[in-house]
Write a structure and sequence with these properties.
Blueprint (H helix, E strand, L loop, with lengths): L1 E8 L2 E8 L2 E7 L3 H5 L3 E5 L2 E7 L2 H10 L13 E5 L7 H10 L5 E8 H7 L3 H15 L6 E7 L2 H10 L3 E5 L11 H20 L5 E5 L9 H13 L6 E3 L16 H18 L2 E4 L9 H8 L3 E5 L1 H14 L1 H13 L1 H4 L30 H9 L1 H18 L1 H17 L2
Parallel strand pairs: 6-7, 6-13, 7-8, 8-9, 9-10, 10-11, 11-12, 12-13
Antiparallel strand pairs: 1-2, 2-3, 3-5, 4-5
């Protein structure tokens, strides 16, 4: 039994437990909760109960019965952290960390891009429901966010809004003229697209709106950032955050690469622009960027939004490497064999020659592969292919070693919050 899930609704008592490695919700006592949740009746020593599977439909009912399980905006909250969860298993671990942290941080638990949805064969409803169940399981009542990340089209944005997401991140990359010869020529299309999306879909909705101009081959200069911010303000577009392309390299799953002094100087300028305009900077691909965290936190006073995602998948693999080394070995070999396909979706600069031959590693040496940059990048981007072939084994292992996975997340994401 998950003790923090024990709660009451009118005359009903509800709690989550695990049976045969699967979580289920029990409802004792007749009432609205008993009647409206879908499940099967059981006669138990404590009396009649309804045993309910943790489905998307039941998650919607939980959201109605317990309003704290609904996401809310984070505008006005200083330090916010996007905690993407590709598997739908990590959020409870994130919540345990947030509860214990001495640093005030608002979690955006549900954060997925369309690319991640397609590669994991999930829906926004799946992502949303996983966060709802985690919040209910942990009895977390302080609020969380749900981010439709890197969305490009009206259809994608509408789908996320209809699902109930509290944040939309607009990816403007397809409207940035990367061959333009001046700032207006480069960013005009992105500005117009942002204004249109805001007026058509965002205005009047109680959601956070983030503008992403980071998916480019070149750095966003402070001058370009100011131009974009000024044009949006003139058009009456209210944004919660904006993500520029910072200097240096923010590659997936590894630390910052580049001139850290140049980053510090440019970041300071970007922050001043954002602060003057009344929104937060958003740091994308923020997983494992331990070199920049001290600068980011010092300059902003922790008034910043940082996005993480794939690093939670890597901690899942670390747990598998520790508990099921044979399975991890199979996954690793499969990942390296399917790397070229994964690189169609992600840009990385791995050198597989630097990765130790897994056939020469004993079981207790396997988790160390998760600390080697090239291996991390390979495993970070091949999640789609891995899940297509190992999904049942991955989920079964992580459900079996649930607390070990939570502990790994607690430690690793804790470093992101602490900034070291």
């Amino acid at each position: 039994m998950y003790i923090n899930s024990l709660t009451r609704h009118e005359s009903s008592t509800l709690f989550i437990t695990k049976e045969n490695n699967e979580k289920v919700l029990y409802v004792f006592g007749r009432g609205e909760a008993y009647d409206s949740l879908d499940g099967e009746q059981r006669l138990l020593p404590g009396g009649e109960a309804k045993c309910c599977r943790m489905t998307n439909a039941n998650a919607k009912t939980i959201r109605r019965l317990f309003p704290y399980t609904n996401p809310v905006r984070h505008k006005g909250r200083p330090f916010t952290l996007g905690l993407g969860d590709r598997l739908g298993l990590a959020s409870a671990g994130h919540i345990r960390l947030i509860k214990d942290s001495a640093i005030d941080v608002f979690p955006v638990l549900a954060q997925q891009s369309m690319r991640e949805l397609n590669l994991t064969n999930r829906t926004y409803e799946d992502v949303f429901s996983a966060a709802v169940w985690a919040v209910f399981q942990e009895g977390y009542t302080k609020g969380y966010g749900a981010d439709g990340d890197h969305l490009k089209t009206r259809g994608e944005i509408k789908a996320a809004l209809d699902c109930g997401f509290s944040m939309i991140t607009l990816d403007c990359s397809e409207h940035i003229n990367q061959d333009g010869d001046n700032i207006e020529a480069i960013y005009r299309g992105a500005i117009d697209h942002s204004i249109n999306i805001y007026n058509d879909l965002i205005r009047g909705n109680n959601v956070d709106f983030e503008i992403s101009i980071d998916e480019t081959s070149f750095t966003t200069t402070p001058e370009a950032h100011y131009f974009v911010a000024n044009e949006l303000q003139k058009a009456g577009v209210e944004i919660t955050s904006l993500a520029p392309r910072f200097c240096g390299e923010f590659q997936k799953g590894i630390d910052y690469k580049g001139d850290i002094n140049a980053f510090a100087s440019e970041f300071k300028a970007h922050f001043k622009i954002a602060e003057k305009a009344g929104y937060k900077l958003s740091v994308h691909s923020g997983s494992d960027k331990f070199k920049v965290f001290p600068i980011v936190y010092k300059e902003t006073g922790r008034k910043v939004h940082i996005k993480t995602a794939g690093t939670n998948w890597l901690e899942a693999l670390r747990t598998i490497a520790q508990k099921k080394p044979e399975l991890f070995t199979e996954i690793f070999k499969f990942a390296t064999a399917n790397l070229s396909e994964a690189k169609k979706y992600y840009k990385i600069t791995e050198n597989t020659a630097n990765i130790p031959d897994i056939n020469t590693l004993s079981g207790d040496m396997l988790p160390a592969l998760l600390d080697q940059d090239d291996a991390r990048q390979v495993l970070h981007i091949t999640y789609g292919a891995v899940l297509s072939s190992f999904k049942n084994a991955v989920y079964s292992t992580l459900n079996e070693y649930e607390n070990e996975y939570y502990d790994a997340l607690y430690k690793h994401i804790g470093r992101h919050i602490e900034g070291n």
